[in-house]
Structures are given as C-alpha cells and as structure tokens.
Amino acid sequence: MPNTNNIRFIQGNEACVEGALYAGVNFFAGYPITPSTEIAELLAERLPARGGKFIQMEDEIASMGVIIGASLTGNKAMTATSGPGFSLKQEAIGYACMAEIPCVIVNVQRGGPSTGNPTHVSQGDINQARWGSHGDHAIIALTASNHQDVFKVTVDAFNLAETYRTPVILLFDEVIGHMRERLTLPEEDEMPVVGRLRTSVPKGVDYHPYLPREDGRLPMSDFGSEHRYNVTGLYHDMWGFPSNDPGVVSELLHHLVDKIENNWESICLYKEHMLDDAEYILISYGSSARSALHLARNRRERGLKIGVLELLTLWPFPSEVVREKCANAKAVLVVEMNMGQVIAHVKNSVTNPSNVFLANRVDNQLISPADIKAVLRMIMGRGI
Questions:
Q1: Which end of the chain has fewer CB atoms surrounding its CB within 10 Å, N or C?
Q2: Where in the chain are the domains?
Q3: Same fold, 1-267 and 272-381
Q4: What CATH class is the domain 272-381?
Q5: Among residues of the chain, what percentage have pLDDT more than 70?
Q6: What superfamily would CATH give domain 1-267?
Q7: DSSP, res 277
Q8: pTM for the model
Q9: Among 211-220, 303-312, 361-370, which stretch is predicted with the lowest mean pLDDT?
Q10: Helix ranges, the chain (H)
Q11: Residue 74: count of CB within 10 angstroms of its CB
Q12: Residues 45, 90: contact at Cβ < 8 Å?
C-alpha cells in the first residue's frame, strides 16, 4: 500500500518538477513562457531550499547557454520552455549535441508557428525536436500522457542524458502540463538514478574528454577543476581541439549518431494497451493518447477489437516496435494534434503504409474520442 504522505494531486508541470528533483537536478535556468512557467516557478522555490541554484535569464538563448555551462561544471542542469523559446534554443542544443554535454530541455507544447496560441494545446514540435538543430546528429525526446509517466520519463531523461552525454528533450503539451491528477511519489532509491560518470584520470595526467570507454560512455571532468581541456562546437579530436581531418570528422559524426541510434532498444519506451488480439491499432502519444485509450476501451465493450500503442519515446523513433506491433492489424490509425508529424514515420515503419490513417486536430483543441471514432468509421466503411 503506498505511503499516503507520498500522494499528490497536482498539475503535470508539477509532476515534472518532482521527477527532476528525484533525479537530482541542482541547476535550473529559464525564462517564463506559457504553458511551462509553473516549472520555473516551482523550482525557483524548491531548488534553493535543497542547496541548488535557480536563475531567471534574460531570454531563452541565454537560458540554454547557462545550463550548458552549469552541466560542464558538474551539475545536473535543466531548462523549460514552449514553442517560441524552443526555437530560440536550437543553436545551443546543437552545440550541446556536438560537445556532448548532458542536460534536459522541457518543451510544454502550444499552438504555433510563431507565438501561435500560448494557452492552448498542440503537438506541433515533434519534428522540430528531431531536426531543429542543423547538421547530422541524433537526439532523444520523451513524452507522456499521464502524471505518473511524466514523473518517470523526467527521471529517465536525466538518466539518459548522463548515460549518453547528450541533451534530452521532454515533449509534453499544454493539456498534460495544466491538468490535475494523482501522482504517487516513489520512495527514495525505489527508482534508479544515474549519476555523473567522472573520469578516474588523476590530476596532472593527460585527460581525453572525448575518448569513449569500451562500453561507449565518456567519463567527464568538472570544467575548471582537476583537468584543463577544450570545449568547442567545431569538429574536434579526442582532446577537444578543432580538426578538419576527414577521418576525425567522419568518426565524430558517426559516434554522435551511433551512440543513440544503435542503443534504441535501451532508449525507446512505449506502452501496450489491448494489443494481443487487436485488429485496429491506434498509435498515439501525450494527451492525444488519453482520448485514443478512452475510445479503444469504449469500442471494446461493443465487440470491436481495438488496441493502443502509446509512444513514450518519440526520438529515436521506435520503427522496429511499430513494425512488430502493427504487423497483423487491418488498419493503423495515428492520433496526434498536428498536420501529421508522426504518421510519416509510422508509414515508413510498417509493411503496408496504405493502411495507415490519420486522426488529428490542429485547432488548438484536445482531440476527442468522437474525433477519432469518425475517422475509424470512415476506415471501416471502406471495408478495411
């Protein structure tokens, strides 16, 4: 029986804060922006009380730069924003990818492009999370549809950032951020928390900041402490110094991509709902998945075999999982609140892309079970 002292009735943004604190965040920098502002407000109070640091920066660009610096000096660092601020952070996110700096970026999505609709829901930043920063690189982006999972994937985000020395993006949305529901906080040490892997190279001995161990992990040295080393956004060698050598460039780019894409099985999180005998499969994520799951349960009661594949990891995209789970489906319906950003990757994953359909809304309103049912009726009317 859970400890009732650990039960909360809170917003999703608050659940994210609880997850970050559980994971050991000790530095936050950000700039207020709807609908993520509660994350900054709460950490402004909670972090100093725990000996951590909070700073409100003058803009989103500076916020991203500051958490990069904080992470390099040994802190678990985080920022939070929404669409317009996420756009401003992209150059620095690319820098963190290149320099392999662990950090967590929360994007509570709202309508866009530009300032769009600050107070309503959207899921329009999925492809931006993957391709927003230029050049060849890989990225990790997680999401969730309920507060218990918001807490968990926030802890996961910090763990993955430290394990793979990479920025990790949390793609929530306004509905998840602002709705209230129950959260049960785990006991201390109940969930694994990955700490910073620091180098064992003693002071005064040559330290290679970009030389992976046999397991692929790169031990770090807190910048400004035991070792002097170079950090750059340029192509660089194992010492961190810029290099134009084709072999060095090729090896570095492959490393940045392979360390994530080759470990997709360890990174990709998903949930199965009633998939064992499903003839129709709904693929969804974030708050859209709540409506998909509601419809599937309702239709099950009427004899229609519908299942839901809920994605918790959006990048790297779990193509193999989608292919396997949808192999025997009569039709696949992707449920999302954008013009179809995930459906393209689903179609590329399955053996019969012509049987993949889209149920969406792009009017800043939560997609409803009735919206999904209308598309499902159209599919079944075709005899699929």
A1: N
A2: 1-267, 272-381
A3: yes
A4: alpha beta
A5: 99
A6: Thiamin diphosphate (ThDP)-binding fold, Pyr/PP domains (3.40.50.970)
A7: T
A8: 0.96
A9: 211-220
A10: 12-23, 37-49, 60-72, 83-99, 126-131, 147-164, 174-178, 246-261, 264-267, 286-300, 319-325, 343-349, 369-381
A11: 17
A12: no
